[in-house]
Amino acid sequence: MDARSRAPETDLRHLSFALAGGVLMVHAAASLPSWSLLFALSLPALWPWRGRLLWSAFVLGALISVLQAQTRLADRWPAARHGEEVQVRGHVLSLPERSPGFSVDDAETLRFEFQPLDAALPPRLRVSWYRAETVLRAGECWDLQLRVRTPHGSLNPGAFDYEAWLYRRGISATATVRDAERCGFEQSMPILRTRQALIERLDTWLGAHPGKAMIAALTVGDTSGFRDADWTVFRETGTSHLVAISGFNVAILAGLAYLMLRWTWPLSTRLAHRVPAQKVAMIGAALAGLAYGLLAGWESPAQRAAMMLALLLIAALPDRQAQPSRVLAAAFALMLLFDPAVVLSPGLWLSCGAVAAIFYVSSGRLGRPSAWRMAVHLQLMLSLILAPLTLYFFHGAAWLGPLVNLIAVPLMAVLTPLVLVAVAFAQLLPAAGIPLLEMVADLLHFMQQGLAWVALHAPRAWMPASPPLAALALAVFGAVLLFAPRGWPLRTLGVLCFVPLLLPPVETVREPFELTALDVGQGLAVLVRTPNHTLLYDAGPAFDEGFDAGESVVAPYVLGLGVRGVDRLLLSHGDRDHAGGVDAVRRLLRVRDELGTDGHAPCVEGQSWTWDGVRFELLHPDGADWSDNNRSCVLRVSTESFSALLGGDIERAAEARLL
User: Fold this and answer.
1) Helix H or strand E encompassing 190
2) CA distance 623 to 618
3) Hey, CA dihedral for 223, 226, 231, 234, is it positive or negative?
4) Which residues, at least 6 apart from 571, have a Cβ–Cβ distance to it below 8 Å?
5) Cβ–Cβ contacts within 10 Å for residue 654, how many?
6) Residue 297: left (phi > 0), alpha (psi -120 to 50), or beta?
7) What is the pLDDT of residues 238-269, one digit of tens each?
8) Phi and psi of 303, rounded to 5°?
9) Does residue 417 have a cis bond before it (omega within 30 degrees)?
10) Measured distance CA(241)–CA(405) in Å, rounded
């Protein structure tokens, strides 16, 4: 065939990007595209032209996303039945998450996913069981009386999108338990039951050992044992990836499987003559990686790692070497085809971005630097290229991350296989395995204590920021440019690409003042801005081991405006739904002055100040002995044209006095 008439060969990487483009287009749209529009988009794929394959991949991504979205939206609990109580029989579909109750006397709170047997009900519910006094296990059958609610989250720009998180996991309703009773109907869930059984064995083997949470996270991906303080340490030291089942963990387990089969297979001469040990070891490693990914809950980092490993080893079976970037593209495309909503997962972009950065730094370069130099080079590259993604998803970055990971990553490379070997020995030979498991748990706890010490003594280990998307994209380009091969023109100019991250644009206030009431659920948080000043009135609620409005809502919104701090934090009164988020606001934002908080001047009637021609005046409380709610600070913000009154939780008596 004439080369000029042959259809152009399309790179798999380009196809995966086109597929992702179609998926992202649907998820970024305010509403689902109509079928007539999708039909019109499909027509160019029927015509033979140079970009036909790429366009077909783009349309395919859009089509599968719309199909999935329509199915999930159709399954949603209708808003007209919000709060309705129903009797449901079904199975626990996840490992239960346990957290303390709201007070010392309360029993723990359980949260889990539930699969009803009735096809008329949503296929997956997110259930909260407050003051639970029973043992709940994954895979069990229960008859539950539930108060069912339509999924919804807060409506704050830049804040965590709880509704999107529910959608990504295929959860069509949330519910709380009103009454519960076990039922005898059983359903085969071998993987889930295996995960639950292993968690229970860890409880038996380790009891209340402080290193048990790390063991559970590294074996079955169960992170419910970590408390908020633990996650704060991981975040501030940039080590959260060490306790998530990702390519690092999957590669270690697959490597162990490969070595075991490679050494033991030749012991049988007959087997070794029939199938080479290398090929058997590669197949075994791929299966071990897939099994570990399933055992860990099949989250997106584990999915990507297991699929990529399997594709790499399958490609190597016929003695051919696969190009790593193509394998990554194939794994990425497979994940999108199986579940388009995975694009909403930060883990997908962080894990794929990390692997792409590793390939970029370590492949196709002339010369081979020393191991320590490559480790430093790679850690710097990962930190720089993942920093924009971290800023985008988590509104901040840990400047300690590159330094801490130079020590923590090699340490975990040793401890992770020890964990897996110790768990296996504890299962097979308890007399020898349990002491080994306790020793490994001691080492992991010691490492956790070291990270906590570093986070405690490092000045402002977490740098909060929420730059615009354009600045983040420019920073990614700058990281790629900085670590380009030697001799690449203008390579050092990549440093300048990071400058917009340090100087975010501030949204200007065009009116005398701008007042924003944030959606924090039951509670209050109001931001008042003048052209040159910012005041925060209350900081929303916070609960132990639960939602913190200061961290999840207030700080992301303020940072998204390009503002790094507030000139004054005014707390109306000390109830949890108004004051709970204060500590997080102090930690994540610069607070120059406080009024009404513990340790600072109280609110007193008659206090006033003026910012940019706007008058702020406290109208209440006076010196009388008021109840807690009636003692709320009442603030009037006024100009010559209009005013606003912020009253906290004052009741009838205080309102009558003001009138």
Assistant:
1) helix 190-206
2) 13
3) negative
4) 538, 539, 578, 579, 582, 594, 595, 596, 597, 633
5) 24
6) left
7) 988 888 777 777 888 888 888 888 888 888 88
8) -55, -55
9) no
10) 10
